[in-house]
Design goal:
- The structure is a single chain.
- The protein is elongated.
- With 136 residues, the protein is an all-alpha fold.
- The protein has a domain of 90 residues.
- The model has no long low-confidence stretch (mean pLDDT 81).
- Helix content is 60%, strand content 0%.
- Helix 2 packs antiparallel against helix 5 and helix 3 runs antiparallel to helix 4.
- It comes from Clostridium carnis.
- This is Lipoprotein.
Length: 136
């Protein structure tokens, strides 16, 4: 009976540790929301996409596409497909989510290369201002 209880406790501990390791994303800033802090509302109608209603990654030429794939290669296959799916839409929220993941997972130099590759298709300055003001 004692071995069964120890086995159950060990299994639960192992499951909890694995779930924390896989699903926990710590906040970088760790700032608490201050009710006295003012919040700014931005109402900008500019779109992040410079092209209309297209699949963004199909607009890249072959060399740019290969370079993008090589930059994304350190990510897991799941993350690569998720980022590509988010980038293929022209939805502002999806593009922001993709760039947040890329900024969090890639080194700064690789992130800058992705910005350079996608700059003809996405308004990078607008994206960076949104990321700076809204999410970071």
């Amino acid at each position: 009976m004692k071995k069964i209880i120890i086995f159950i406790i060990f299994t639960l501990t192992l499951i909890m540790n694995m779930s924390i390791a896989l699903f926990w994303n710590p906040d970088i800033d760790n700032k608490k929301d201050d009710p006295m802090q003012s919040t700014e509302v931005f109402s900008d109608t500019r779109s992040l996409c410079k092209v209309d209603d297209v699949i963004l990654l199909e607009e890249l030429d072959n060399s740019q596409s290969k370079e993008l794939d090589s930059i994304l290669s350190p990510l897991s296959t799941f993350e690569i497909e998720l980022v590509k799916e988010e980038l293929n839409t022209c939805s502002e929220d999806e593009i922001i989510k993709a760039f947040r993941k890329l900024k969090r997972r890639l080194p700064e130099s690789e992130y800058k290369k992705i910005e350079e590759i996608l700059s003809p298709l996405i308004d990078i300055e607008e994206l960076n201002s949104i990321l700076k003001n809204k999410y970071v």
